[in-house]
Amino acid sequence: MAISTTSIIFPIIVFMLLSTTIPTQASGSCSGNSNATDLMVEACKNASINSYVKTVPEEFCLSTLQSDIQSIKAKDLHDLVFIAMDITKGRLNSARAMVKKMLQNAKKGTVRMRVLRFCEVDYEEMASILNICDAMIRNYQGYTGNMRFEELASCVFDAYHPAGACEDELQDMPEEAALFQENTELLMLVRMGSNFLVPMAVP
Ligand SMILES: *[C@@H]1O[C@H](CO)[C@@H](O)[C@H](O)[C@H]1NC(C)=O
Ligand SMILES: *[C@@H]1O[C@H](CO)[C@@H](O)[C@H](O)[C@H]1NC(C)=O
Question: What global pTM score does this model have?
């Protein structure tokens, strides 16, 4: 929620985190995994090249989909979008549980308390946004309907800002690396979900 000078540093940190995954991604060996269907490989390749706002590393995308057995059964991109949304909501719930637990031992008036409270609010906001988008995606009538894909991708991407705000806050709590990592993955999942909606623009 809070806007601080760390908001300038934040994109640099995310870039640094992402750039560490680039060399391994270049090997392109992901498609050799028996659990990755052609649809998953294609969707992740697309999401790593074309983006609504920010691309997502192909390897992160594939391993995320592979972590959910439902992915293998996905018939089309629409199915994958729901799977991506479910995974994101599941991860968000774990992050919320983590924050809730940490709040139990946080002392009033401390930096720790402030950071955790802001992240708690950020995650609540994220959850509402994702629930709204989920309903919008379910109502999507295809290209001929009233809704345009941009609105769906933009809806999902709205969840990026609260996770970014929590990340800004977490700069003041460097000892909580696990929560920072969880939050970084949430940011990636939001990119993945919004990018999956991009090819739906094609009539
Ligand atoms: C990937 O991108 C191409 C070109 O934009 C598009 O035609 C195709 O439907 C996309 N496939 C998936 C699974 O995202
Ligand atoms: C395939 O998916 C299942 C269930 O998610 C997992 O247990 C298994 O290790 C995966 N296999 C490979 C080759 O990734």
Answer: 0.80
